Amino acid sequence: MSSKTWKADSSAAWKAILTLLxxxxxxxxxxxxxxxxxxxxxxxxxxxxxWRSLIAGQGVIWAAALALNWGDxxxxxxxxxxxxxxxxxxxxxxxxxxxxxxxxxxxAVFVLPKFExxxxxxxxxxxxxxxxxxxxxxxxxxxIADAFVGLRRQEPTYAGLMETRQRLQRCTAxxxxxxxxxxxxxxxxxxxxxxxxVGSYPKEIVFSYGLYFTALLLVVYLPATADFYRAAGxxxxxxxxxxxxxxxxxxxxxxxxEELGITKTDALQAAVATLSPIIGAxxxxxxxxx
Length: 290
Known about the structure:
The protein is mostly helical and 290 residues long. It has one domain (11-287). Helix content is 86%, strand content 0%. The longest helix is centred in the middle third of the chain and has 38 residues, at 158-195.
């Protein structure tokens, strides 16, 4: 083994170790904070403990989301912050509806308000914690919006489309994981409230959140993807005009389409990613049946 290879392997190993240690530290700190805030409340059932663990786990997911997309965020916010921040603000408002709606229609959802069940310390902690999560999710959605604007403003190039494809895939997957984790936490919140015997938090709420998050993902993802397909088609047609190409060019055309992600496999992966919140909600409801 050469010294360069050993150094590369050693560096990768240290990065992996530091990443695991960082994730563990974030989880431990959040778990201790949530546990401390929950002292003396009616949130002490096993279901509530699982819910508190999921809350801490979400913090790790959010930190990972920022780390994975940090380079793109810095680049975009320096060069063209308007579309990203504008879209992110709209997504924050949209996601905030999941926090506001239960309070507006509290009589239909709760016998007692959540803060009365959780206590002020835990309730306030969860409120601000979730708000941070909304901002992280919104920034990732803003990166997708920037990709959409970039496709509209610039003439398609191979390098540009490959970069856009990677961003769309990474951001969509990241946003899906964030929303599915939120669905899981909501499901265990519902079970915690039932265990406390203090409210009527219907399981249908979990399903409605899954449906809402799926619709939001589609609204964020579809316009950018449609423009990506349009730009990729334009580039392929410009390089291999349909009326002129022979068998060899047809194979090259197909290879280029595959490289750009215009395949059935990519379409299936995108469908799974965008539908993951509703799939997660259905699974949570099914697993939660007595």
